[in-house]
Specification:
The protein has 14 helices and five strands. It is 52% helix and 9% strand. The protein is an alpha/beta fold. It has a five-stranded parallel sheet with strand order 2-3-4-1-5, sandwiched between helices.
């Protein structure tokens, strides 16, 4: 359900048998019994105050979901790409002068960073690395567009997910959204421009945030409205809130033109993600070390794979599977 502090556990049952048990030795029965026992123990230990707070948080989450309509859990995609990250890769981005210039929380630094690269070059893995880094020390929200999933291609879904993440972390924004939910109809079927104008331009950009907020949006080119997304970012120029936005995508003529127009309004920098050879080598070396072969042969395989990959992580990954 996505409630705060929620713990999920699977049962060997369907919706007909989920509350039916063969006996009190059933593993499903024991799981449910233990979960209830833990809940009761926590209530008795911490008192009713925190329990009321949790109930209020759940009620708030339900109201926000009613206002925004259904959208995918953003954490699932982050975890998906983080599991594919190899230690020792991607850290070059943190010392890159263009990234550091964008990430610096100072006046007169770029608001927008467009990181672009060829297909299969590991953009989403790099995005997940940056997100994980920023989450440890900053106010960061994020979204991964996914071409193979119609819901995750939706710009509406991206905006709703972003709004929900911000509401989770900022009480003033959350209260303003709650006011909308009590005075107007749901935004479930609203178009992207309506959501942007009502939630971001109408509320968020008028707030004074205590710290800079970072947005990371991956695979912009896989959105159902990539140019519209970039065009709407012009509204950030009028934001009272300090917001830094990183957009990650392939490079194409339409996006180049749209970003050129955006950079006239919003201070922007571009970062071509070209040199992936070091990260590919790290990944290949990690896998090849487990081969049962002489070291000379392993070294030859590493050099051949890195050279043939030609900067394409996807090719190298598929070759390692063979």
């Amino acid at each position: 359900m996505g409630y705060p502090n929620e713990i999920s556990k699977s049962l060997n049952a369907d919706h007909h048998t989920v509350c039916k048990f063969d006996d009190n030795e059933s593993s499903d029965y024991i799981s449910v019994r233990n979960a209830l026992k833990t809940l009761i123990t926590e209530v008795c230990t911490i008192g009713v105050g925190p329990v009321k707070a949790l109930a209020h948080a759940q009620e708030t989450a339900e109201q926000l979901q009613y206002l925004l309509g259904p959208f995918e859990n953003h954490q699932d995609d982050l975890e998906f790409f983080r599991r594919r990250w190899t230690m020792g890769t991607c850290d070059w981005i943190l010392s890159h002068v263009t990234f550091r210039e964008w990430a610096t929380d100072e006046d007169e630094t770029p608001t927008m960073l467009w990181l672009h690269a060829l297909p299969g070059s590991g953009k989403s893995i790099l995005s997940s690395f940056i997100i994980n880094h920023l989450l440890e020390q900053s106010f960061c929200v994020y979204y991964f567009f996914r071409f193979g999933d119609q819901l995750k291609r939706s710009l509406c879904n991206c905006l709703k997910s972003t709004a929900y993440q911000i509401a989770e972390k900022n009480s003033n924004f959350r209260l303003a959204l709650m006011d909308i939910s009590s005075t107007s109809k749901t935004l479930e079927k609203a178009d992207p421009k309506t959501i942007w104008d009502k939630i971001f331009v109408g509320i968020l950009f008028k707030l004074k945030l205590p710290t800079t907020m970072y947005w990371i949006i991956d695979a912009v080119d896989e959105s159902d409205h990539p140019q519209l997304l970039v065009e709407m970012m012009q509204g950030v120029a009028n934001s009272t809130a300090s917001i830094k936005i990183l957009l990650v995508s392939r490079q194409n003529d339409d996006l180049i033109s749209t970003f050129d127009r955006l950079s006239v309004v919003v201070p922007s920098v571009f970062l071509p993600f070209e040199d992936t050879k070091r990260d590919i080598r790290t990944c290949v070396e990690k896998e090849v070390q487990y081969m049962r072969a002489p070291q000379d042969f392993k070294s030859m395989v590493i050099e051949r794979l890195v050279a043939c990959a030609n900067g394409n992580f996807l090719w190298a990954s598929l070759a390692l599977l063979e």
